[in-house]
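Exercise: predict the fold of this chain.
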Amino acid sequence: MEDIDAPALRALTPDDMPDLMALVSEAGWNQTPQDWKMMLALGNGRGLADDTGRIVASALTLPHGNSLGWIGMVLVAGEWRKRGCATRLLDDCIAELRDASRVAGLDATPAGQPVYERLGFAGTERISRWRRPARAPAGEAAAGVNPAGHDDLARIAALDAEIFGAPRPKLIQDLCSRADPMGWIAGDNGFLLHRMGRNARQIGPLCASDTATAGCLLDTALAQFGEALVIDACDAHSGFGALLKARDFMVERPFTRMYLGAPTPTGDPGRLFAIAGPELG
């Protein structure tokens, strides 16, 4: 690890929000203060500060169940890049998860992947971020798809745990609590959640028994929203990718799902069509 001039690591708190959102804005990412507040409440954030106290680098771990920990929000201000900040933060995240006997997972951008590989992460599962510009809502709710209500929360959380591979009910509850409608559900065959982002509405997670059901859930959302949309879709479902393209989504960037050590598949990837977001798993 390179020596850097930044002070020692310290915990992130909601009081750091202006600096954290500045990092998000500089990187062009989509997280909001509400996202940060949720992640800091459910997980463990750490940062590096310059000599003025400004947070110039961040990273965060989210526990999912008893055995998985997700690393996200690895951000470094431009003037501090290539000075060892990311590695220093990642080392701390890895140590925390190892001490808790948790498998460390993350979704790597192309720029971050070489850093993660040097630390021992591996994986081949690909995810693509698709974006559609703002346009008037069109269409109507698909047959068999209904708005999700509070009575559906337990069923959605259980399906998410089964398909994602680890329980995260508080995360699901938070996403649902700040969306209207909170999402849609297709009986026991799948669900779709969403949230407003900094520069686009994030669609996901989207879990479904098959591509046709995933398409029905997506089309119901498209009938509701007119703002710019992003969705982080699993490349393994090529038919769903074709569906997104037909609805005027375009690929913006790829991610690679990686785990520390040998790749560790979780859950039921055959029913996972879009993730909650690379920072959430």
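Check your answer against the key: The mean pLDDT is 93.
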